[in-house]
Specification:
This protein has 172 residues and is of the alpha+beta class. It contains six helices and four strands, in the order H-H-H-H-E-E-E-H-H-E. A hairpin with a 2-residue loop joins strand 1 and strand 2. The radius of gyration is 17 Å and the shape is globular.
């Protein structure tokens, strides 16, 4: 990733920790929009390295809308040779959540990072992976991706409440 993009993500993290999620969201949008991913993609560049970004915003939004309209029908994504998209469950004193874990074919290298993807309302981790194309991006850049599943017990619409200030701090 570029130094400018990384710096923007660090600023957004500090804003969230300081209790200002609105400013953090704006910082992320700015990094992804003007001067960020959007302009870099138009220039044929990627914040993740040398290769051009594989999916445009229009294609990603179309995929997300289609996965939501399908009513949660989850078609397993095609996997490149050597990649895995495993299922698991995590439990602690706060409860348990199922998740999907994408591990690209790292070809003996260490992963470059870990990304957690929180799906939208009425989506599943598989819908979200298919709609965003994140597995392909992870494959191209050596990222591990975890897709936790929100339960109906926690939210009737299966939504993650990342937008609620009470849920934006450690231990919440």
């Amino acid at each position: 990733m570029t130094d400018e993009f990384n710096a923007a993500m660090r600023r957004a993290g500090k804003l969230v920790r300081a209790g200002n999620p609105k400013a953090a969201t704006e910082a992320i949008q700015n990094a992804l929009g003007a001067g960020g991913l959007g302009s870099m993609a138009k220039a044929g560049k990627s914040p993740f390295g040398k290769s051009k970004i594989g999916r445009g915003l229009r294609e990603t939004l179309s995929g997300l809308a289609q996965s939501t309209l399908n009513g949660g029908d989850s078609i397993e994504p095609d996997l490149p040779e050597g990649a895995t998209f495993d299922s698991g469950s995590f439990s602690c004193s706060a409860g348990s959540r199922d998740y999907r874990l994408y591990i690209p074919n790292l070809k003996g290298s260490a992963p470059t990072g870990l990304v957690m993807m929180l799906h939208g309302c009425k989506q599943s981790p598989v819908d979200f992976a298919n709609g965003t194309g994140m597995n392909q991006l992870a494959e191209a850049h050596g990222l591990i991706v975890v897709y936790p599943a929100q339960s109906r017990m926690a939210n009737m619409q299966n939504c993650w409440k990342w937008f609620d200030p009470a849920d934006q701090m450690r231990g919440a």
